[in-house]
């Protein structure tokens, strides 16, 4: 036996129980009380929780937008993930334009990640207008282990609702899951024109410029398309209570609609745009209201939203400062490193979620939805030994200077946390311990997604 974690509280999606975990090579070998294993390394984890490594299924590392590149690349992005107890991330392979074949975009992205990644990773395939018709290319990326597609209802990459319907039909046939960024393009465009006409273009108007109604409208349209196609669909970064309620209602009708939200939509509000640092909080969709926060927590607890991910897309304050208006300020915020600690403190400690629920929304559900289960997302013999030692007694005030993003700021500066990640193991290897990153570039592996029947 290579490693024994002794005396901790093992947290699975079902329960919390005191047990030891034995690791052999890269896999969990056994879980049980008082394991009598002779191990090369024994770690006393009395009083600590052992959770499966978190999976952040929505990150953007080294992402170009025009001339601009995100602050975190594959190395710093996956390093900060390790420091936050995240052992698998899912990023995106996006063609440079509709003429670039999906397989080429995918090959380039895999090549970028290969020598830099410090944790395991998967990819979603972005599908641009017209590419939803190319059955051959869609099938090829699935064969290569990319079993989820991403489309937008807004931006230049947008597909119309009918085109999303066509992709949903292809995906159903091929066994892939379509994930959608939902903001209605016409509503967003109309509001932008109104604001421009009255000179209200400062980043302070960001929330106003992308109204809740735009998200709700797009989610409604996409749910209708999914119903017509008989396909499952996954809505990324749900920011509104109204959107979450549409997902819950569709599920109650028996439709397979899945929803993701992010810590910032649970914990922050649009008041942040009133301050001098509005640009640092600018992401799409924007922050909403306290009432939206409340409804999102409620739907996470009920299981109608299944995943919390971060949409980690980091820009430094200097990059952000280049923005003169809400529409030209780099959009996105860092988040992966604080995902698990925030969910524990503000979810579990504040009585909104249980520990097993945290495991479900951060590990089990993401692994199941994106075809990584049971290799990832659970603590069981035979699964990868992706383990987080979490110390519930550690009190932390979040400070950017203690975090590892190249963006060098956090939207959660000053947040008080009760409990923090003590150590992270990736496939049995210690990659983070007591504040120190111990991993190395290139040790993260591409984990192909399997086709899963949801
Ligand atoms: Zn995103």
TrEMBL record:
Sequence positions bearing N6-carboxylysine: 150
Which EC number(s) are documented for this chain? 3.5.2.-
Question: What's the superkingdom here?
Answer: Bacteria
Which UniProt key words apply to this protein?
Answer: Hydrolase, Metal-binding
Its post-translational modification remark reads: Carbamylation allows a single lysine to coordinate two divalent metal cations.
Quote one Gene Ontology molecular function term. Answer: metal ion binding
Choose one Gene Ontology CC annotation of this protein and give it: cytosol
For this chain, the family text in UniProt reads: Belongs to the metallo-dependent hydrolases superfamily. Hydantoinase/dihydropyrimidinase family.
Question: This protein is called what?
Answer: D-phenylhydantoinase
Give the originating organism: Neomoorella thermoacetica (Clostridium thermoaceticum)
Which cofactors does it use?
A: Zn(2+)
Taking every annotated instance into account, which residue ranges of this chain make up the domain Amidohydrolase-related?
49-430
- Write down the PANTHER family for this protein, in alphabetical order: COLLAPSIN RESPONSE MEDIATOR PROTEIN, HYDRANTOINASE/DIHYDROPYRIMIDINASE FAMILY MEMBER
